[in-house]
Structure to design on (136 residues):
Protein backbone atom coordinates (compact mmCIF):
# COMPACT_ATOMS: atom_id res chain seq x y z
CA UNK A 1 0.00 0.00 0.00
CA UNK A 2 2.80 2.35 0.75
CA UNK A 3 4.13 1.97 -2.78
CA UNK A 4 0.70 2.74 -4.24
CA UNK A 5 0.29 5.85 -2.07
CA UNK A 6 3.72 7.06 -3.09
CA UNK A 7 2.93 6.47 -6.78
CA UNK A 8 -0.34 8.34 -6.42
CA UNK A 9 1.46 11.17 -4.72
CA UNK A 10 4.10 11.29 -7.47
CA UNK A 11 1.41 11.18 -10.15
CA UNK A 12 -0.44 14.06 -8.46
CA UNK A 13 2.77 16.09 -8.31
CA UNK A 14 3.45 15.41 -12.01
CA UNK A 15 -0.09 16.47 -12.92
CA UNK A 16 0.30 19.70 -10.94
CA UNK A 17 3.63 20.35 -12.67
CA UNK A 18 2.06 19.70 -16.08
CA UNK A 19 -0.80 22.08 -15.30
CA UNK A 20 1.67 24.73 -14.16
CA UNK A 21 3.69 24.23 -17.36
CA UNK A 22 0.54 24.52 -19.47
CA UNK A 23 -0.46 27.74 -17.66
CA UNK A 24 3.03 29.13 -18.13
CA UNK A 25 2.91 28.22 -21.82
CA UNK A 26 -0.45 29.97 -22.26
CA UNK A 27 0.85 33.01 -20.42
CA UNK A 28 3.96 33.03 -22.65
CA UNK A 29 1.80 32.83 -25.80
CA UNK A 30 -0.43 35.67 -24.54
CA UNK A 31 2.64 37.75 -23.72
CA UNK A 32 4.05 37.11 -27.19
CA UNK A 33 0.75 38.14 -28.84
CA UNK A 34 0.66 41.31 -26.74
CA UNK A 35 4.26 42.12 -27.65
CA UNK A 36 3.41 41.65 -31.32
CA UNK A 37 0.38 43.95 -30.99
CA UNK A 38 2.51 46.59 -29.23
CA UNK A 39 5.02 46.38 -32.09
CA UNK A 40 2.24 46.85 -34.66
CA UNK A 41 0.81 49.81 -32.75
CA UNK A 42 4.25 51.34 -32.39
CA UNK A 43 4.80 51.02 -36.14
CA UNK A 44 1.44 52.68 -36.85
CA UNK A 45 2.23 55.44 -34.37
CA UNK A 46 5.61 56.04 -36.00
CA UNK A 47 3.95 56.27 -39.43
CA UNK A 48 1.40 58.75 -38.09
CA UNK A 49 4.16 60.84 -36.55
CA UNK A 50 6.12 60.84 -39.81
CA UNK A 51 3.01 61.86 -41.76
CA UNK A 52 2.31 64.64 -39.27
CA UNK A 53 5.91 65.87 -39.49
CA UNK A 54 5.73 65.84 -43.30
CA UNK A 55 2.50 67.78 -43.15
CA UNK A 56 3.99 70.31 -40.75
CA UNK A 57 7.04 70.68 -42.99
CA UNK A 58 4.83 71.28 -46.01
CA UNK A 59 2.75 73.80 -44.11
CA UNK A 60 5.90 75.60 -43.00
CA UNK A 61 7.26 75.72 -46.56
CA UNK A 62 3.85 76.66 -47.95
CA UNK A 63 3.90 79.75 -45.77
CA UNK A 64 7.28 80.68 -47.27
CA UNK A 65 5.83 80.77 -50.80
CA UNK A 66 3.75 83.87 -51.34
CA UNK A 67 2.32 82.64 -54.66
CA UNK A 68 0.50 79.69 -53.00
CA UNK A 69 1.48 77.12 -55.58
CA UNK A 70 -1.07 74.54 -56.58
CA UNK A 71 1.43 71.71 -56.20
CA UNK A 72 2.01 72.66 -52.55
CA UNK A 73 -1.72 72.66 -51.86
CA UNK A 74 -2.09 69.23 -53.43
CA UNK A 75 0.81 67.95 -51.34
CA UNK A 76 -0.80 69.32 -48.18
CA UNK A 77 -4.07 67.62 -49.08
CA UNK A 78 -2.32 64.35 -49.91
CA UNK A 79 -0.36 64.27 -46.65
CA UNK A 80 -3.47 65.36 -44.76
CA UNK A 81 -5.40 62.50 -46.34
CA UNK A 82 -2.72 60.00 -45.35
CA UNK A 83 -2.64 61.40 -41.83
CA UNK A 84 -6.43 61.16 -41.68
CA UNK A 85 -6.43 57.54 -42.84
CA UNK A 86 -3.74 56.59 -40.36
CA UNK A 87 -5.54 58.51 -37.63
CA UNK A 88 -8.77 56.73 -38.50
CA UNK A 89 -7.05 53.52 -37.51
CA UNK A 90 -7.03 54.89 -33.97
CA UNK A 91 -10.42 53.35 -34.06
CA UNK A 92 -13.95 53.30 -33.09
CA UNK A 93 -13.21 53.69 -29.38
CA UNK A 94 -12.00 57.27 -29.78
CA UNK A 95 -14.98 58.07 -32.04
CA UNK A 96 -17.36 56.69 -29.41
CA UNK A 97 -15.61 58.70 -26.73
CA UNK A 98 -15.98 61.93 -28.72
CA UNK A 99 -19.59 61.14 -29.67
CA UNK A 100 -20.42 60.39 -26.03
CA UNK A 101 -18.88 63.69 -24.98
CA UNK A 102 -20.88 65.53 -27.66
CA UNK A 103 -24.12 63.86 -26.51
CA UNK A 104 -23.42 64.84 -22.90
CA UNK A 105 -22.73 68.43 -23.93
CA UNK A 106 -25.91 68.53 -26.03
CA UNK A 107 -27.96 67.12 -23.14
CA UNK A 108 -26.38 69.59 -20.76
CA UNK A 109 -27.15 72.40 -23.18
CA UNK A 110 -30.75 71.22 -23.60
CA UNK A 111 -31.25 71.05 -19.84
CA UNK A 112 -29.78 74.56 -19.51
CA UNK A 113 -32.16 75.82 -22.21
CA UNK A 114 -35.10 74.16 -20.46
CA UNK A 115 -34.08 75.71 -17.14
CA UNK A 116 -33.69 79.14 -18.74
CA UNK A 117 -37.06 78.77 -20.48
CA UNK A 118 -38.72 77.74 -17.24
CA UNK A 119 -37.09 80.61 -15.36
CA UNK A 120 -38.00 83.07 -18.12
CA UNK A 121 -41.63 81.87 -18.18
CA UNK A 122 -41.85 82.28 -14.40
CA UNK A 123 -40.26 85.72 -14.58
CA UNK A 124 -42.59 86.81 -17.39
CA UNK A 125 -45.65 85.65 -15.47
CA UNK A 126 -44.43 87.40 -12.32
CA UNK A 127 -43.54 90.56 -14.27
CA UNK A 128 -46.87 90.65 -16.13
CA UNK A 129 -48.75 90.67 -12.84
CA UNK A 130 -46.50 93.40 -11.46
CA UNK A 131 -46.73 95.52 -14.60
CA UNK A 132 -50.49 95.34 -14.71
CA UNK A 133 -50.73 96.39 -11.09
CA UNK A 134 -48.25 99.22 -11.54
CA UNK A 135 -50.00 100.44 -14.69
CA UNK A 136 -53.45 100.51 -13.08
Amino acid sequence: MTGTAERLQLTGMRLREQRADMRAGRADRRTERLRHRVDVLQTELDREREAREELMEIVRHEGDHANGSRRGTIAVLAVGGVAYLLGAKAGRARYEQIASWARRMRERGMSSVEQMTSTTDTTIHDTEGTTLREGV
